[in-house]
Amino acid sequence: MRDEIRNTIATKAWARWTVLAIVSFTMMAGYVVAKEMSPLQFMLEKSAQDGGVGWTSGEFGIFAGSRGFFNVFLLMLFVGGIILDKMGVRFTGILSCVLMLVGAGAVYGVITYTSPDPLWNVPLLGTVKRQVALAALGFAFFGIGYEMCGITVSKVVVRWFSGKEMALAMGLQVAMARLGTALALNFSLPIALNWGLPRPLLIGVFCVGVGLIAYLYYCTMDRRLDKESGKQEVQEGDDEKFHFADMKITIKNPGFWLITLLCLFYYSALYPFLDFATKLMISKYGVEAELAGAIPSILPYTSIVLTPLFGAWFDNKGRGATMMVIGSVLLTITLFVFAMPLNSSWIAVTLMCVLGIAFSLLPAALWPAVPKIVPMKQLGTSYSIIYYIQNIGLMLIPVLIGKVLERNTIGDQVDYTHSLIIFGVIGVGAIITSTLLLWMDRRRHYGLESPNINS
What is the pLDDT of residues 396-421, one digit of tens each? Predict the structure, then answer.
């Protein structure tokens, strides 16, 4: 199929980059919703009289981790990957957008129209407020669509950019996603302080709705690609069909599992850190609440600029495995320095800038590396396994950190030392795994150190 695509719309630069812009916007909308509640922890933990709802740090941790509940316990990411490889990017993308829209709308409705009481006894979570449980349920539904959208967009980029500027395209897609994170971190809390807690959630619902409309337009371009290549999306040649038996080749590949573990360690340290970073700026560094989200947003803003540049470097020069090692080292050092008793806001700004480099360097190399290790026909299912393992960390770590913070809170004073050390230790796992991946690449010749653009 790839040979035939060379003579279709995918060979036209304007078409490839238009597709990238469309699907990147859809993914960006999902990232807005994924992080819009993180800066609101400060307000959620206030009493109703002060404009909040009276959650605890532990309850916020439960909510933050709930995005992965269904993906982990109901194996929805595996289902999503199989749907993607069997049904194609159009059907799966539309389904994921609908699920994101339903989940985001549910979170908005719960926060807006329900009260925290009464208490509910939830299996595995214990006793939590009704509002927390219902909001977590909505966020879990959103999480199914969010992760399914992630693997679908990744396959779309590979489908349109294979043999071309794939790492740059993935870098730009990641940069757009980071823009969604940055917008959520920067503006959710100021909007909530000025117009009420539900307003930023409503904006998130609107963004996902526009993302669904944008993806529907992409589907028209994808149909044209199939028509010009003389194929139906899910009726490919025999060499490109997905077969369950073929997955054993990927499962036996040590490089695939090293990529998966690296994704687990890296994102389990970084994303939960961002969930708690806004309140960290207020409690430890004394930043005003209206500006507290601006410092963590340095991280995604830095990534917006640097991720495409690092992706272009990988396309033209290679050194992808080395980039992953460097990114892991920067991540870990920065998290351990955050744990030190250094309370200047300027130190926090500097550390966020360094963390932004790590936030750019590793993803720019990690996601384009997957198609070098995994065949195209198994890509959707392989991405789903990677995302599934990643979701285990994204589900458990926020709950753990929330409990640790609860135990280290006295009055209005919060000691973040232990929680930040936990993040740093997870980062050590990323260093070890990325180093092993570099070593394995030299033995198995995956091509992670080679350029992506075919000469």
Answer: 998 899 889 888 887 777 889 999 99
Is the separation of the CB atoms in 345 and 287 below 8 Å? Answer: yes
Contact 347, 334 (CB under 8 A): no
Neighbouring C-alpha atoms within 13 Å toward the C-beta of 433: 25
Are 343 and 287 in contact by the 8 Å Cβ rule? The answer is no
Tell me how many degrees the CA angle 94-99-100 measures, rounded to the nearest 5.
Answer: 95
Question: Which tokens hold the place of 297?
Answer: 């947003």
Contact between 304 and 175 (Cβ < 8 Å): yes
Per residue in 105-140, pLDDT (tens digit) is 999 999 999 887 787 877 767 788 889 999 999 999
CA atoms of 109 and 275, how far apart (whole Å): 21
Q: Residue 239 has what pLDDT?
A: 42
Per this entry, what is the length of the chain?
455
Find the largest Cα–Cα distance for the chain: 67
For residue 338, with 0-12 CB atoms within 10 Å meaning exposed, 13-18 middle and 19 or more buried, which class applies? buried
Q: How far is CA 348 from the centre of its chain?
A: 23
Q: What pTM was estimated for this model as a whole?
A: 0.74
In the chain, what is the straight-line distance between the N-terminal and C-terminal CA atoms, in Å?
20
In this structure, how many other beta carbons lie within 10 angstroms of the beta carbon of residue 163? 12
Other beta carbons within 10 angstroms of residue 217's beta carbon come to 11
